[in-house]
């Protein structure tokens, strides 16, 4: 299911949560005309069933965005199974230990340099910031090397300048690592527990990253102020935002939050597309910890990815931030080959109440009935 290509000025934000009815109806040529004119009262007897069917369609189109589709099995025959077993031995007993060694060496180099720079160069903020940017890019390069990452970057490398923000589609937390090895972005990041949270509160804060907690309403105002302050600074690292707000499976794109498009600055789209030939880079945080996700990548043959830095966009006269966000989403989806869906990604973490879902399903069913009556 795909959303509308553009929004009318009169369309409200809530309309983005409504699916395109045309996607669920057959074309006019495939509908056989009834002997008499079809009227709404002729369908009232089946409206509860239609409501349930519409609800099932809506739920399926939403959950499809956050499912990892495993590849078709290819190794269950007498010829390929021995070869697959040999590949498992190579990946787990040769490649994986070598990658762990690479990542360990990277952390030793990084920490033995980052800690002295952070402590000893406090009186030289510009030099310290430059070295910290370089070191963060370096450790991210070691991470990519530990997956045997094959990443192709297309377009000009981002530069430090005021009043610009970069936005990208979001598949996994490794999106940040893939982009960070080329440019030390400051990102808006959800707070995480464990060792990831420790990195966030120490190393990543040194490059201007901003934490938020989606469960804390007061965080929105604080983060909005930090965003405005950051984009005004001429020496701040480029700001990177994942406006979907959650990881999507690299086949679909959910609604973009409008916060990045209300800053009054140019928006630079970044399209990220992973090739699933060796491993699926989608991180399903509800079923897998980030540590296990990294282990999955490190025991695969390689992570193959393309990154496109696209032309900057500005708010057009008379265009609302919501329309601006949808226009940028169109650009990213077209470049990365993603399907647009009209769902709010936050519903992945906080599902609506049964009454809200029932109201939405009823609204959808009524729209289908009205469309059928018009036919």
UniProtKB/TrEMBL annotation:
Keywords: Acyltransferase, Lipid biosynthesis, Lipid metabolism, Membrane, Phospholipid biosynthesis, Phospholipid metabolism, Transferase, Transmembrane, Transmembrane helix. It comes from the Eukaryota. This is Glycerol-3-phosphate acyltransferase 9. SUPFAM superfamilies: Glycerol-3-phosphate (1)-acyltransferase. One of its GO terms (biological process) is triglyceride biosynthetic process. The chain crosses the membrane at residues 76-94, 100-121, 133-153. GO terms for cellular component: endoplasmic reticulum; membrane. It is found in: Membrane. Belongs to the 1-acyl-sn-glycerol-3-phosphate acyltransferase family. Residues 164-275 form the Phospholipid/glycerol acyltransferase domain. It holds the Pfam family Acyltransferase. GO terms for molecular function: glycerol-3-phosphate O-acyltransferase activity. Pathway: Lipid metabolism. Residues 350-375 are annotated as: Disordered. Its main location: membrane. InterPro entries: LPCAT1-like, Plipid/glycerol_acylTrfase.
